[in-house]
């Protein structure tokens, strides 16, 4: 009897060593009220499941102080790595300092920030380059479709408090400046990154400049909102151009309809989130070293240009990636 | 003939209503903490996590003390979130100009105090509703913060200043110590001074207070000034946490503050309230944010859960407040 008990105790003891806690990753996301973010979210969940990790989320609604609070709460909840999407450099710095203090890995999912030896640099979109691609599409379309006598009036909707949007607008504006040979006017207003904001901003811009015939929204929501204002103002599809940025399903649908929404600069959120989650888990489990990822530096992924030629293909691809309910 | 002695009056339990309020909300907080502790397998109650929650709510407490004064007089301030941002921008710019950080903090508090002096004067002398005036100030102050900063954070590169938001005195975070000091002073002023008694009197019955010789306008203006000083201080603490003055900080913050104060038993109609109640209410709100994140509750359900928990807290508070005076 005593021998059986002894064997049982030894077996239990051995078993306790074989139970390894799953790696725990905390993700700070800016919002879940956007298709890009939903696909990003799903990517984190899918990759965590595939790698046997636990993932918890905190949403900040783009508030810098909530970013800091979110990271604190996730770390308090046991996260061994934080994947953070700071809306601004200040909150990123605060999160980095916190992770360093608590010996938690930190990975950047928000926007390019100064690189350092203590975190994994940004993996995400080439926002400036994407803005340039939008500019390129605009210039080519204008040259082909707007008669020489017609005034070119460009509007772009911005979100000045969000670094990525600032880069997109900058890329767009600078491309036009360098490559548009015809005279043109350009105006902007804050679209707030939302349909409501885009609608209101564009209504105001059209009041001041009724001849606007080209619109670039720093994201699809503001572009779609702006487009609604243009349609309400009686603008014809054939004579006007709207370009979005993000790769929302609605954007692809509008392109497929053949109306004035002709181009979307797509991001690849599923790709980023799965890459980041893989790095986070490998760091926690010791399968990778921080120094190796630091050496890689910022990874900016090209933004595909989605037009009528490939909109269906992208629509089908992204529809599959949307969260399963 | 002697009349029969009247039936002995039913014994009524005389209990201080304010104590009953505190008891009610304390019970609610304890129940909440217990639920979170059990569900998180002890992680919620870990001293590290409790200190994290304390640091997170310290800004709410500092602002809440000021707004409690305002609400006890029967008024409200919806602009505190915007003032928080404005304070941070003001402070950051003063430090950039070479003002020593401690002096810059004092200047920020004085500046916000002066601003609130104007607001309080308009409300008191013009007999305007504080709801409308402070709603207007919510936009004005935010606009000033955004235009002054160009929509971008204003970075503060001063290691000793950063301690105000991220430092420790022993194991206690410095923001907690600052909030504690503000609380002690606020409680003393409210409960032990003539000014405090007049504050209650103005909120309880302004006409009666005026008739009894209290300068009600002076009291109203004074509570706004106190709130201005404290919001300025809180803005400095937040800037310390964020390593910057952020023009978008504090969005929606007024809701957290008012929720904390109301949960803590301060009446929206004035005449009733306490600093301790505000403290407990702030912990309630902070604990909900922290606990739900630790438990990995999905974001959409978090929003619903927060509202329901606050609703339940108020119900428990009312249920325990069975008192007849």
Overview of the molecule:
The complex is a heterodimer of chains A (325) and B (325). Chain A has 325 residues and is of the alpha/beta class. Chain A folds into 2 domains: 22-119 and 269-300, Rossmann fold; 127-266, Rossmann fold, CATH 3.40.50.2300. Helices cover 51% and strands 17% of the residues of chain A. Chain A contains 12 helices and 12 strands. In chain A, strands 7-6-8-9-10-12 form a 6-stranded mixed sheet, with helices on both faces. In chain A, helix 8 (220-232) links the parallel strand 8 and strand 9. Chain A is elongated, with a radius of gyration of 23 Å. Residues 12-18 of chain A have low confidence and may be disordered. Chain B is mainly alpha-helical and 325 residues long. Chain B has a single domain, classed as ABC transporter involved in vitamin B12 uptake, BtuC (Orthogonal Bundle), CATH 1.10.3470. Chain B has 13 helices and 4 strands. Chain B has helices spanning 17-39, 47-72, 80-96, 101-125, 130-149, 159-166, 174-192, 194-204, 206-211, 216-242, 253-263, 275-294, 299-320; strands at 154-155, 168-169, 172-173, 244-245. In chain B, the strands form 2 sheets. Chain B has a two-stranded antiparallel ribbon. Chain B has a two-stranded antiparallel ribbon with strand order 2-3. In chain B, strand 2 (168-169) and strand 3 (172-173) form a beta hairpin. The interface between A and B is medium-sized, with 30 and 38 residues.
């Amino acid at each position: 009897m005593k021998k059986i008990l002894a064997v049982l105790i030894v077996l239990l003891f051995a078993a306790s060593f074989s139970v390894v806690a799953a790696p725990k990753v905390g993700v700070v996301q800016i919002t879940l009220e956007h298709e890009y973010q939903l696909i990003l979210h799903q990517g984190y969940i899918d990759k965590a499941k595939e790698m046997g990790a636990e993932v918890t989320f905190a949403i900040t609604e783009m508030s810098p102080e909530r970013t800091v609070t979110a990271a604190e709460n996730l770390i308090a909840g046991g996260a061994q790595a934080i994947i953070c999407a700071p809306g601004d450099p200040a909150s990123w710095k605060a999160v980095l300092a916190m992770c360093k203090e608590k010996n938690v890995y930190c990975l950047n999912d928000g926007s390019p920030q100064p690189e350092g030896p203590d975190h994994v640099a940004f993996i995400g979109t080439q926002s400036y380059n994407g803005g340039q691609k939008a500019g390129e599409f605009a210039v080519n379309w204008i040259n082909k479709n707007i008669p020489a006598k017609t005034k070119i009036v460009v509007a772009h909707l911005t979100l000045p408090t969000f670094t990525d949007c600032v880069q997109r607008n900058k890329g767009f504006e600078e491309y036009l400046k360098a490559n548009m040979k015809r005279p043109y006017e350009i105006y902007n207003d804050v679209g707030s990154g939302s349909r409501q904001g885009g609608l209101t901003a564009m209504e105001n811009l059209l009041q001041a400049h009724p001849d606007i015939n080209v619109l670039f929204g720093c994201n699809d929501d503001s572009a779609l909102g702006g487009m609604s204002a243009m349609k309400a103002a009686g603008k014809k599809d054939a004579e006007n151009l709207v370009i979005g940025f993000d790769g929302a399903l609605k954007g692809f649908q509008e392109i497929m309809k053949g109306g004035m929404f002709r181009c979307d600069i797509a991001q690849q959120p599923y790709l980023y989130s799965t890459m980041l989650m893989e790095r986070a888990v490998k760091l926690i489990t010791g399968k990778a070293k921080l120094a190796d990822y630091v050496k890689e530096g910022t990874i900016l992924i090209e933004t595909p240009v989605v037009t009528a030629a490939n909109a269906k293909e992208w629509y089908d691809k992204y529809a599959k990636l949307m969260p399963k309910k | 003939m002697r009349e029969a002695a009247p039936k002995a009056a039913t014994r009524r339990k005389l209990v201080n209503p304010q104590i009953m309020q505190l008891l009610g909300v304390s019970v609610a907080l304890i129940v909440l903490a217990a639920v979170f502790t059990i569900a998180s397998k002890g992680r919620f109650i870990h001293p590290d996590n409790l200190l994290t929650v304390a640091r997170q709510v310290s800004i709410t407490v500092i602002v809440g003390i000021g707004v409690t004064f305002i609400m006890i007089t029967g008024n409200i301030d919806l602009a505190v979130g915007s003032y928080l941002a404005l304070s941070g921008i003001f402070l950051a710019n003063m430090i950039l100009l070479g003002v020593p950080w401690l002096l810059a903090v004092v200047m920020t508090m004085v500046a916000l105090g002066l601003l609130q002096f104007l607001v309080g004067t308009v409300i008191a002398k013009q007999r305007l509703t504080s709801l409308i005036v402070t709603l207007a100030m919510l936009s004005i102050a935010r606009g000033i913060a955004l235009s002054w900063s160009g929509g971008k954070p204003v970075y503060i590169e001063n290691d000793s200043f950063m301690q105000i938001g991220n430092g420790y005195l022993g194991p206690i975070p410095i923001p907690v110590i600052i909030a504690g000091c503000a609380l002690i002073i606020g409680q003393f002023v409210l409960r032990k001074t003539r000014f405090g008694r007049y504050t209650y009197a103005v909120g309880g019955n302004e006409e009666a207070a005026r008739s009894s010789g209290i300068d009600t306008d002076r009291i109203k203006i004074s509570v706004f000034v106190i709130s201005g000083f404290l919001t300025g201080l809180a803005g400095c603490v937040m800037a310390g946490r964020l390593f910057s003055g952020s023009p978008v900080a504090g969005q929606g913050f007024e809701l957290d503050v008012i929720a904390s104060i109301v949960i803590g038993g301060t009446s929206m109609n004035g005449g009733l309230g306490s600093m301790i109640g505000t403290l407990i209410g702030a912990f309630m709100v902070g604990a909900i944010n922290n606990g739900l994140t630790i438990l990995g509750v999905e974001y959409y359900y978090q929003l619903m859960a927060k509202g329901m928990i606050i609703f339940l807290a108020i119900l428990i508070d009312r249920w325990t407040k069975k008192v007849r005076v």
